# Entry
Amino acid sequence: MTHQEKTNPRRMDIEYAGVAPPPRILLVLVMVAALLFIAAGLAAVLFLRSGVGLTSLIVPALIVVGLLFVGSIGGSILFRKSLPRFFALWIIAGWLVLGVIGVMAAVVVYRNVLAPGQRETAKYYVPIMRFFDPPPDAPYLTLPTPIPETNDISPEDLLNSPLDLNMPSAEVTQPVIRVAQTATPTPTVTLSPTAASAEMTPTVSVTEAAGAPTFPPETVSNTLPASARLFSFRHVKQTWNNCGPANITMALSYFGWQDGQEVAASYLKPDREDKNVSPGEMVSFVNNRTGVRAITRIGGDIDLLKEFLANDFPVVIETGYLFEGSDWLGHYQTVVGYDDTAQVFYIYDSYLGTGENGSGIAESYTTMDSFWQHFNRTFIVLYRQEDEPRVAAILGERADLTLAAEHALEVAQREAAQNPQNAFAWYNMGTAFTRLGRYEEAASAYDQARRVGTLPWRIFWYQFGPFEAYFNVGRFDEVLSLATITIENSQGFVEEAYYWQGKALAELGRSTEAASAYRQALAHNPSFAAAQDALNSLNI
# Structure
C-alpha cells in the first residue's frame, strides 16, 4: 500500500467503486426539494382550513412540480460528469413513471372525487381534462311518467277553469312613462318583503303583499317610447354556476353597488355547488343587504319589461337556455334596453357577455319570450325606495300576488289551448294554480305537462311547484320519487329536493330518514329556515 493510499483511504474506496463523489450542490438541492414538499403540504392544509377550494392549489402545484422537474433534469445534465453514468436516465425514467401514476390518479380523482364546480376549475387550467368528464347516467336524461291518479279533472277542465272571481280586485292603473318629479308627494305603497320566499318554503307568498295603489292623474302616460336603453351597468362575468349572484350584482351596479358577485354568492349560496338560486332569495338579498329594493313576480310580458326599462328600472329575468354543448339549463339575464324598430331586447349576459361594443346582446322579442316562458315569465325589478309608487303603478294589478298568479294562469291556459303539446304551458298552469292554493288542479296540470311533451330533466332543480302540489293532495310517494331523482341527477346539490324528500318521508312515517333529509338540506344551506323548522317538529 502506497503512502497516498494510507493517508487517503476514502479515495481508494471511490476509485474502487469507479464513481466520483456527487457534488455538494446536489445534497443542497435534495434538501431544498424536501423543504418545498413540506411547505406545499402545510400550504394545502391552510388552504383547506380556510375554506378555499382544493382546485385553487392547481396552479401552485403545477409550478412546484415544474420547478422540480426542470431542476432535477437540468441538475443531472449539468453535473453529469460527477454523477453515475446512467443517473440522468434514471431521473427521466422515474419522472415518466411518476407522470403515468400521477395522470391515472388525476383522472380517477377528477371523475370520482371532485365536485362539478371543481371539475370546471380543473378544465379551466388543464383543458384536456374535459375528455375525462364522467358521462351522465341515462335515468338523468328523462323524467318519470306521473303515477296514474283517478280524479275528475280533465285537461279540458283545466283549460276552462275560471279565475277566482271572489278575490278583491285591485284598481288597474296606466303605465308610468318617465314622469317628472313634482313637489307634491305621491301616496306611498309599501311592497314589504315577507320573511321567506315561496321557493324556500311550502307557502305561496314570495316577497310582497300589497294592493295596487291609486295615483294622481298627472303621473299617468299612455305612450311608450320606441326604444330605451339603460347605461351605467358594470358587466359581471359569472364564475362557475353563479349566474344568479352575478346578475343581481350586475343589476345592483346600476345603482352604484361596488361589491363583486362573491358578496351576493356568500348570502345566496353558502354551498358553491348549489344548483339553484331562486328569485325570492335574490329579492331577499337585495332588500336586506343593499339599500336598494326589489320585487319578483310571475306572469310578466314584453310590454311590462319595456315599461320598466322606459322608466329606468333594471330587470333580471329567469329563462331557459341551451348553451353550446350542454342540455337545457335555467339561466338569469339582465335586460338593459329594447328597440321596437328592430324588435329586440338588449341583454347583459353573465356568461355570454355584453354584445358588440358593450351595447348588449340583441335578442328578438319572440326568441326571448319563448325561452322566458320556461320559467312562467318570472322577473325581478330593482328600484330605489322613493320610486316604489311608480313601480307599483307599472305593475298595476300584478302588484297583488293573487292577481299576478291569476294573470299567469290565464296566459298559460291560452297558450295550452293554442298548442296542447306545449309542456311548459301546462307546467306554468300548474305553478299558477299552486300559487293560488288550488292544489288538485295544480297536480293535474303538472301531470299533463309530464305527459304531453318532453320537459327538461333539470327543471326540478329550479321550480318546485310539483313537490308542493303533489304533497298537498297526499301524493307522498310521488313527491318522494321526484325528490330522490332530483337529488341523484344534481349530485345532491339542490337543498330544496332534500327538504321535500324529508316532508314526504315524514308523512310516510319514516321520521328518522326524514330527519336525515332535513339535515342534508341544512348542510348545504344552514339558513334554510323551513328545513330547520321541519326538523325541529320531528322532535328527534
